[in-house]
Specification:
Low-confidence stretches of chain A: none
CATH class of the domain at 2-20 and 33-227 in chain B: Alpha Beta
Shape of chain A: globular
CATH topology of the domain at 2-20 and 33-227 in chain B: UDP-N-acetylmuramoyl-L-alanine:D-glutamate ligase
Radius of gyration of chain B: 19 Å
Strand content of chain B: 25-35%
Structural class of chain A: alpha/beta
Strand content of chain A: 15-25%
Structural class of chain B: alpha/beta
CATH architecture of the domain at 2-20 and 33-227 in chain B: 3-Layer(aba) Sandwich
Largest sheet of chain B: 10 strands, mixed
Low-confidence stretches of chain B: none
CATH superfamily of chain A: CBS-domain
Strand order of the largest sheet of chain A: 1-2-3
Largest interface: A-B, 20 and 23 residues
Shape of chain B: globular
CATH class of chain A: Alpha Beta
Largest sheet of chain A: 3 strands, mixed
Helix content of chain A: 40-55%
Mean pLDDT of chain B: 91
Radius of gyration of chain A: 16 Å
Order of helices and strands of chain A: HEHEEHHHEHEEH
CATH architecture of chain A: Roll
Number of helices of chain B: 9
Oligomer: heterodimer
Strand order of the largest sheet of chain B: 5-4-1-8-9-10-13-14-15-16
Distance between the termini of chain A: 14 Å
CATH superfamily of the domain at 2-20 and 33-227 in chain B: Ribokinase
Number of helices of chain A: 7
Helix content of chain B: 25-40%
Number of strands of chain B: 16
């Protein structure tokens, strides 16, 4: 089966100059944990996740400990988050985005999602325009 | 690609009742038990998107959604195979529109539409950027339905103007104020929503003559096709070269749910024109889709074969 047949047909995305606080609002409202970043043509240029935002707010702890139990207190986390709230998404996004094409096999999407431990994978057309996302749940639903 | 814009979507709740009890005194009976009910994603553009998807035509639905009911709308569209591209608002829930249909009087529905949620400036800016991106893949945009509270009445005009500048065709289906404001952008197709008002600022649309006079003036200003529902089973269509009266040979007693029927009509016309059909074929298909939608429990009929068969019951007369 092709990726286009199992993907979620959703184009929710952001442009690279929007502030982090706006991204957090969209992630929360749309109940997403990560977001494709597109240019003015709608072409996929990067990817950003809630994990990237946490990492940006608490770089040292994240790198060293991989555990939020070592955050001294939530006030400090909130303060750090406030400091990056107006940063453009561009500052924290991943330009080396992992994605699949709409005509790729579902197996290829499954392989990437499982191997790279991804929650979702952007889907692009031949011109690199975003056309949807494959979520882990899409795969599970499709396979059952 | 067809892009629909529904600025003020809804969750549509429909209740069928034997008789609606409306108490005037506290001691009167006032609880009505429905015999049947339905819940679906709604709003004119969304109905058109669902209709087009059921015809097998890929399309993208845009607009503003919020809260739990916003998720209901988005999920329903994706389940129909429509691509979603909505802007999330922080000011509340997507509205609920309520329809009550009394058995035997389904052609005269009781409609209560919610006002919708306000759109913040940042959300509007996000939508406009998103809309400009979508114009790069669109060949048609459909601007349909009411506007959320406090959104400028020139909103559709701005969207139509941008689309026309990008070489994208435009259809507008809306009520009095925003449709009138949009006309200077010369959309390709306009369909006034006459459910609330039978007049549109300078336009009166009560009689056949008034509709024709308004239509002639509108097409003179650059609109290609104006479609006006004149009777429940018929429309008047005005183009630069022709005026048609289009009717269906059906009884209104056959109607089950009128909500969405007008949107199926416009969706049918756009579907046919998009596929290269002539105007007469498009109008026959559109009205057949509208009639079958009105006759079904569901808001829009998705059976293309049945629609094509129903076209034999549609008469088209040049005036």
């Amino acid at each position: 089966m092709k990726v286009g047949e199992i993907m979620t047909r959703d184009l929710t995305s952001v442009e690279k100059d929007i502030p982090v606080k706006e991204l957090i609002f969209i992630l929360d409202s749309a109940k997403m944990s990560n977001m494709p970043v597109v240019d003015e043509e709608g072409k996929l240029i990067a990817f950003i996740s809630e994990k990237d935002i946490i990492k940006a707010a608490l770089p040292g702890y994240f790198e060293m400990l991989h555990s939020t139990s070592f955050i001294p207190d939530m006030n400090q986390f909130a303060k750090k988050l406030g400091q990056i709230a107006d940063d453009p998404v561009e500052r924290h996004m991943h330009p080396d985005v992992i994605c699949v094409e709409v005509d790729d096999d579902d197996l290829q999407a499954a392989d990437l999602i499982i191997r790279k431990n991804l929650k979702s994978l952007p889907v692009i057309d031949a011109e690199r325009r975003l056309v949807g996302v494959v979520k882990r749940i899409d795969l599970l639903h499709h396979l059952l | 690609m067809i892009v629909t814009v529904t600025p003020n979507p809804s969750v549509d709740e429909v209740y069928w009742v034997d008789r609606l009890k409306i108490g005037k005194e506290t001691q009167e009976e006032y609880l009505t038990r429905a015999t049947d009910s339905d819940i679906s994603a709604g709003g004119k553009g969304i109905n058109i998107s669902i209709f087009l998807a059921r015809m097998g035509l890929e399309n993208i639905a845009m607009g503003f959604v919020g809260g739990y009911t916003g998720h209901v709308v988005v999920r329903a569209l994706r389940d129909e195979g429509v691509t979603t591209n909505f802007v999330w608002t922080g000011s509340g829930e997507t509205r609920i529109n309520l329809t009550v249909l009394e058995h035997g009087r389904e052609h005269i529905p009781i409609l209560i539409d919610g006002p919708g949620v306000a759109v913040a400036e940042a959300e509007m800016n996000r939508f406009m950027r998103c809309y400009r991106r979508m114009l790069k893949v669109a060949d048609w945009v459909v601007l349909a339905g009411s506007l959320p509270p406090q959104v400028n009445l020139a909103f559709y005009y701005e969207l139509a103007k941008l689309a026309k500048q990008a070489g994208v065709k435009v259809a507008v289906s809306a009520g009095a104020s925003c449709l009138t404001h949009c006309l200077p952008a010369a959309p390709n197709i306009v369909k006034p929503d006459t459910r609330e008002h039978l007049s549109f600022e300078w336009m009166k649309l009560r009689t056949k003559e008034e509709i024709i006079n308004a239509g002639k003036r509108i097409v003179q200003d650059g609109v290609e096709i104006m479609i006006v529902s004149h009777e429940v089973t018929g429309d008047i269509v005005i183009t630069r070269d022709n005026i048609w009266e289009i009717n269906a040979r059906v009884q209104t007693t056959q109607f089950r749910n009128l909500v969405g029927a007008d949107d199926a009509l416009l969706g049918g016309v756009i579907y046919q024109i998009h596929n290269g059909a002539g105007i007469e074929q498009a109008l026959r298909f559109g009205l057949a889709a509208g009639i079958l939608s009105a006759e079904s429990r569901e808001k829009v009929c998705g059976d293309k074969g049945k629609i094509e068969h129903e076209m034999a019951n549609i008469t088209l007369k040049r005036i």
